[in-house]
Amino acid sequence: MVEERPGARFLARLSSDRGAHAVWRLTKESLTTPAAVEGLARALGVRPGVVGYAGLKDKHARTSQLVSVPAPELRGPAGAPPRLEARGWSAEFLGWSPEPVGGGGAASMEGNRFTIIVRGLTAARAREMDRRAALLRSGANGSLVVLNYFGAQRFGSARHGKGFAGRRLIEGDFEGALRLLIATPARKDSGKLRALTRACAAKWGRWDELARELPRLPERRAVEALATGASFKGAFGTLPQITQTMAVEAYQSHLWNETARACAAAIVAQDQLLRSDDEFGAMLFPPAAAIDPDWRAVVVPLLARGSVLAPPWAEAADRALESEGIRVDDLRIPGLRRPFFGEALRPLFVEASSFEMSTPVPDGADGAGRSRPLVRTVRFDLPRGSYATVVLRALGE
Fold it and tell me: Are 330 and 197 in a shared domain?
């Protein structure tokens, strides 16, 4: 369960008097944020693009977050309904704000409160969670200090395990990037996306046939462009902007994680690191007591062309780039202005504050008479842009 924590300033400016933006609390389950927003927009009779929100929430969770709609868009007789709902989502009207949700970046949002039920635990795994939590704790405030890796959700464009489209783009290999994005099936593909990736993989190059058969998804425009004689670069440019951007940002995030991994090894000896395997590479976590204050304050950018590698993380970044066979100056896409590799700062470490972990208890009955697995609840707060899955990895899960 994920509950967005709005900023105190934003909440203080909410009013019952009609203002520039109507604000709702949107609660959803088993839906992506864009899908829930589309449903809300349809119910309000507005375009989805005018709905403001501060971040994407996990599809596979019960989540709540603030959304806003500009007052001039609410032209219908219902105005700002106090409550709206449909399958998978509901929205409760909170009031009017002089600014939109998500305006100016993180202005309307401080972070998220996570409540996670961990099932299927053995007694040994539960003890390992306790051991790791004790090593990661910082001071008397109960916070855990963990390396601020990007979680696997960030790498959706590489979930097939075949590599990063962003790496192909900097080589100018637009066909390779396009194949990774629309013609490389992944286990978690479903519905129309599953049909599209499998059809493109099976019939790559047979553009006319594919253009007739593909399901109606925005990605099919790339195949339609190829069927009319467009280049692979031109076809890539027809993909949804979010798809293009995420191809670049996923690769930047991979480089950031590789840099963070090397930083961990520079902070403490290998035998002191807490290690957890992850589908996009092992995650290494130094114990809180071993982290020098200077390292705690380090901010590492998502690398871009022209990024200046600075100590103490410069050597780690060099190692990450060398493992990919590239240099900082290679982080550009030849012949395209967008998408581009833009630099963004990210703290190397993050605090999971207000951390609580319940005592493990037996979870239901085992009909075969075996020992029952254990279950426990974990709660903590994270700032915007940090991943609960990473905290679970730090705890050994």
Answer: no
